[in-house]
């Protein structure tokens, strides 16, 4: 199946052929944001939407998958935590429910990729460096999503315009570009770099189909400034600048750890996990990574601080992950309008560039 814009133009890319979606536009798996409502809207608009499973229990994920399947026949995906204690159970669920695509925020283990591929599921890990892309492709990944430093949430320091061509040149699978994309010009530019499509988080969060409270969306539209902080979970995290973030930046080590303990207890109650399971998850997070136990403990901040804003509608009590692109967004279209406009805009931009060729 190929990608077709609203005016009849066709964008046929390796991403549309690999996943069966109409348009080479991806909605990323944002915790507390990418639920059935948003993913269904993206799928029905011809894009590839991902359910964010990291903030769902296994039962909640099952219900979310069923909810999307009841509302659309279009392909969609699930974003997984490779280091989750029940990662194997979640993969069993994807296989059982015939989910089309699995993505990972961090590099999955080789055996996870193999299990998914053996079941015919397309595997697309997210990467932030060329060497990471080379590793997961060597393990059998079908495509990679590469996010530059402009992107929201956990992010690196290298800009998309530098990271994307490095990865495109290094691997022989489709590459999806993320970090700084919001319109058709960006999609055309990514395709020119050799990407097979673009992925967006903040742009899809700021749609009328997003379940984020309207008051929080207004904060995004009115603020427009992001910062990278390590005070959320010990790792670089791009978020909207706010009074809470400034307070976190000014807090001491002891205060940060106490906050992490409180949030860890809240997440334990919300998720139904035992302390034993949470410790096992912490060990999995730490395995193979240069993380201190203090950083692992601080990671308990992330789900609850995001939930306070994204679900509870309290931006004064939570953090709001955001890409730098928030500074150029000023509207809340629905997903069909957004994706249709992006694809049509990309087709126009490509046609305009072709006019520069001298024969």
Task: Detail the topology: elements first, then pairings.
Elements: E1 3-4, E2 10-11, H1 14-19, E3 25-27, H2 36-44, E4 48-52, H3 58-71, E5 77-80, H4 87-96, E6 101-104, H5 110-118, E7 122-127, H6 130-138, E8 144-147, E9 153-154, H7 160-170, E10 175-178, H8 184-193, E11 197-200, H9 202-205, H10 214-223, E12 226-229, E13 237-240, H11 243-250, H12 253-271, H13 275-286, H14 293-298, H15 301-310, H16 335-354
Parallel strand pairs: 3-4, 3-11, 4-5, 5-6, 6-7, 7-8, 8-10, 10-11
Antiparallel strand pairs: 1-2, 9-13, 12-13
Helix pairs in contact: 2-3, 6-7, 8-16, 12-15
Secondary-structure element series: EEHEHEHEHEHEHEEHEHEHHEEHHHHHH
The top-level CATH class of the largest domain is Alpha Beta
**What low-confidence regions span 5 or more consecutive residues with pLDDT below 50?**
1-7
Fold-level CATH name of the largest domain? TIM Barrel
Number of helices: 16
Main beta-sheet annotation: 8 strands, parallel, barrel
Number of domains: 2
Give the helix proportion (percent range): 40-55%
* Spatial separation of the terminal alpha carbons: 33 Å
Q: What is the residue-mean pLDDT, rounded to a whole number?
A: 88
The CATH architecture of the largest domain can be given as: Alpha-Beta Barrel
> Rough shape?
globular
Let me know the CATH homologous superfamily of the largest domain: Aldolase class I
Rg over CA atoms, rounded to whole Å, is: 19 Å
Q: How much β-strand is present in the residues?
A: 5-15%
Provide the structure class: alpha/beta
* DSSP strand tally: 13
Read across the widest sheet, the strand sequence of neighbours is 3-4-5-6-7-8-10-11
